[in-house]
Design goal:
526 residues; alpha+beta; Uridine Diphospho-n-acetylenolpyruvylglucosamine Reductase, domain 2; Uridine Diphospho-n-acetylenolpyruvylglucosamine Reductase, domain 3; 20 strands; 22% strand
Length: 526
Amino acid sequence: MSTIPFKKNYVFKNWAGIYSAKPERYFQPTSTNEVVELVKSARLAEKSLVTVGSGHSPSNMCVTDEWLVNLDRLNKVQRFVEYPDLHYADVTVDAGMRLYQLNEFLGEKGYSIQNLGSISEQSVAGIISTGSHGSSPYHGLISSQYVNLTIVNGKGELKFLDAENDPEIFKAALLSVGKIGIIVSATIRVVPGFNIKSTQEVITFENLLKQWDTLWTSSEFIRVWWYPYTRKCVLWRGNKTAEPQNGPAKSWWGTKLGRFFYETLLWISTKIYAPLTPLVERFVFNRQYGKLEKSSTGDVNVTDSISGFNMDCLFSQFVDEWGCPMDNGLEVLRSLDHSIAQAAINKEFYVHVPMEVRCSNTTLPAEPLDTSKRANTSPGPVYGNVCRPFLDNTPSHCRYAPLENVTNSQLTLYINATIYRPFGCNTPIHKWFTLFENTMMVAGGKPHWAKNFLGSTTLAAGPVKKDADYDDFEMRGMASKVEEWYGDDLKKFRKIRKEQDPDNVFLANKQWAIINGIIDPSELSD
């Protein structure tokens, strides 16, 4: 049995507060040796392990009543090596280090993380384990910045992985949904520090569609926040710069009063009278951005890179995010716009805003690029690896092109359907999320592994309940679609998973893994 201290009666809650769990034991190891000991002990005791970081995933994928592991105390920098002639550095860190902690260290060295998603609370291990990405036509999955990983597999073995050392296991571990082993350290490729100069403009929805073919390659970093009930969008574009910072933009809902007032209005529309929702969203949009279309020249900010990447996620929320080929994006937006409008007219369902619309470029060159001629603010990635993870949910048919030749055909379109939980109260999501998922599925889309995708009992594997017995927000599963989408890559992932974890130490929350096709139910009876 493990000699590592543990807590009983610990209650884990994810950031959104949707799910909680009371594991039998809660561990916070402080070294790789302790992680090895812990995995071996779990194997002998026939217990399963789940590893959690910040708990920012809004899904139930990390819920367990067995053993829960948190790596927050495994957060040291192991090594920092600069390559001045190649204009990058490699930093090796413990996998429990949070991204904001890593960036603080890098800032002191004059370096920056290349690209991030919308928050920097995740751990170094957690951000790659579900396929996190940023918002850029040049950059892809965050895992493409990782040079190597060291994991403890289900047999308690320490394995060093990179493109030359066990590359197949590396491709499984780069997006493992926690089912291969525990990542204990990683080497990340970082670039000289930069600020982000951004412009923000309010445009009409129709204007967004008119610009579609050229919009997404118009800057290195780009995001659109769509407000369907106003027929408006906020277009944010950013590029690397050496210009000094001038501070973040002011925000109405960034104030305590504005935030509380907005959340109160959401609560009223959720709990008392849902048809108020479009009025609430129009009112709040006008308070934050104004009624008229604004030019990009009027709202220019220069911030540090992390502040530029990150955004205020506001309140507890359900999030259903899917990615599909950018070439199908126009039809997707038009279809969703029509469906949202009709649903409001018929009082069927209502959406919360913004709907975040983003892109990434997960195509990869055959080998890492020559970086010797880069400058500190050169656009595009410096790859840590050029291995596509087996469970990468982005289109596999897109082919790599040099930055100057990137078009929509290289890009993945991501859309976030967000529904807030004002003051922790659940808001109905099933009708809206089901329509959203069906629309994205028809467009060749797949769900983000960590989000609140629902699926259907007709797509799930293993035992299912009657539809009427599910909670409104409860996941049904996507197994048959996952098998169709990932094909041979899923078979390879399953084989590697079984080899690395023969006793299913990392199959906590088996139901989630079964209904979504991560494992074949027959594995459990072998």
